[in-house]
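User: You have something folded?
Assistant:
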Amino acid sequence: MPYTYRKSERLRKNREFVSTLKGKRLSVDGLSLFYAPNTVGHFRVGISVGKKLGNAVTRNRLKRRVRDCIGKVLSDTSLAIDLVFVARRELSTLDYGQIFAVVERALRKAVLRSKKAESAER
């Protein structure tokens, strides 16, 4: 069963996306991840797939796969962080297992970097 996000777990407004895109960035195998701390107290996710990646069916399939992978990785996380995933062309050629590995690696890096930044502030 695919992971579904509550409204509170989604970035929905343009200003939320823009503020997250101004945060830190990392890239892993066809996936760019922008992340920034938030004051909500839990993670929020946004996914962007450009029209250059293919037709609507291809883009929506890719978004569903990425969304499901994120849900499986973050389901038990209590991070207060906003995440925007931007899919690149290379990601559309991967199968589900490979996409899961890419998403997991990107999230692990982002969590590690945000924890380092958090501890450096103290």
